[in-house]
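User: What would this chain look like folded?
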Amino acid sequence: PGRFLYSNLGYVLAGAVIERITGTAWEEAVLRLLLAPLGVRSAGFGAPAGDQPWGHAPRALGVGRGPAVDPGAAGPRARPADNPPLLGPAGTLHLTLADWARFVAQFLDGGATHLSPESIDRILKVPPGGGPAQGMGWAYPARRSGLEGVGFAQQGCNRMWVAIAVVSPGRDRAALVTANDGRTRMLRATATLGAELLAR
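Assistant: Here's the prediction, encoded as structure tokens.
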């Protein structure tokens, strides 16, 4: 109690709460109540299909970049191109960088067009207690993390893709970085690149 620990299950439970409150699937609720009002049109769930880059899973033990994972492959030997649907609320949403920027802009100072200032303040509030400074999906890097110039960040990985949004302490700039490479080392690499982009 009083200590933050990241858990995909927490987001799955939040998805179940959304479904109970809205009476619709969480995917429909997110599209209709959050993304559509922001003008987001590219959102989908699961790995991006069609003429899009494919994610790359790490090789054995997370070492080395593995082969691309075909999102359209089927059959018992097909490798999943995303997390299972059960983990959807924890991160199976995909969208273009331009549409992702529409969402992240809500957290820039004066950028909110759909969320209230009170909602923004609540979402960005650092939770009390021990553990990492993270809550409501945004994390606050420790001073010794090497991410100076980053006020807060949001990062995700499904073992085939890594994505991070970093926002300056003054909430006047943001940088978005994504890679279709799911190796653990890409978490640090994309965070570092995001911090470098903010510093330019």
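The mean pLDDT is 90. If you want, I can go into more detail on any region.
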